[in-house]
Each structure stands twice: as structure tokens, then as C-alpha cells.
Amino acid sequence: MNLTAQIAKLFRDVHYGGNWTSVNLKENLAGVTWQQATTKVYSFNTIAALVYHMNYYVSAVLKVLQGEPLNARDKYSFNHSPILSQQEWEKLLNKTWTDAENLAILLEQLPESKLWETFSDEKYGNYYRNIHGLIEHCHYHLGQIVLIKKILLQTDKN
């Protein structure tokens, strides 16, 4: 397996399973209702906000790999439409899975030499740094989702 295929695997694993941590997004979001996804716990972001935020950056990197300019701003990364139904929640999840798979496919096809080229602008470093940063970002917020879900399920029991 070449390097870009391995990176694509790491990216898929955080979304669908098989990673070293044995934790993934799809499994942890299975069965989460739109009400749970939009419930505020303490001062944390909601599960829905975190899913949107994670996919905001996945979508931005996907577009760059499709040849478009980088068009993402941190200040907009939590600006999602309110989720008011199960259908809207499932639409967000479906976009997340579709974007993740499309990005993984493009990563597999990426020539290894591209990893060392500048990603969009010098200030962002190279492709390798940005793609691995994206994977780290997903793991970080996945951990938050797991904890928020545990709190919600514990609260539901009381």
C-alpha cells in the first residue's frame, strides 16, 4: 500500500472504523436522534454542531483536491442551519459520509509527490500537513462527541 492509500485508510478509519483507537464516527452517531444531536450539554458544542464543524473542513479539503481554491474560514466553521427534524439530521450525516468517502477516494488517487507541495497557500504548509491535520481534527472532535453522548445517555437514565 502506498503512502496516499495509507493516509486514505486512516481517514476512512476515523469515520467508519478499523483504526488503532477502535472508535469511529459512524458507530458513535448510529442511533443518535436529532433531539440528542441538538441538545446542549454544559457549555459544550452540540453533537450536531461538532459533526457540521468536522465536515466543514473535510468539505473544504475535498474541494481543493477537486481543483477548486480553498474557501474556508474558521469563523464560519460552526455556522450551520438549525436542525429541527430527524430528516435534517440524517441529511447532515449523509453529507458527512458522502464527503468523507469522496475525499478518501481522491486521497487514494493523489500522487505521493503532491503531499509535499504547498496546500493552497504557503501559510498552510503542504498537503501532508493539512491532510493529517484533518485526520487529527476528526479524532479530537470524535472524542468530544463520545463524551457528550455518554452524558446525554446518562442524563436520559436519570
Protein architecture, described:
The chain is 61% helix and 0% strand. The chain starts with a helix and ends with a helix. The chain contains six helices and no strands. It is an all-alpha fold and 158 residues long. It is globular, with a radius of gyration of 16 Å.
Structure, briefly:
The chain has helices at 3-16, 25-29, 34-37, 47-65, 86-109, 127-157. The protein is an all-alpha fold.
Elements, N to C (H/E): HHHHHH
Name the overall outline.
globular
Q: At the first level of CATH, what is the class? A: Mainly Alpha
Termini separation: 49 Å
Q: What is the number of E strands? A: 0
Strand content: under 5%
Q: Return the structural class.
A: mainly alpha
The CATH architecture category equals Up-down Bundle
Domains, number: 1
Question: In CATH terms, what is the fold-level topology?
Answer: Four Helix Bundle (Hemerythrin (Met), subunit A)
Average predicted confidence as pLDDT: 95
Number of helices: 6
Helical content, roughly?
Answer: 55-70%
Write down the Rg.
Answer: 16 Å
**Major sheet: size, sense and barrel closure?**
none
Assigned CATH superfamily:
dinb family like domain
Low-pLDDT runs: none
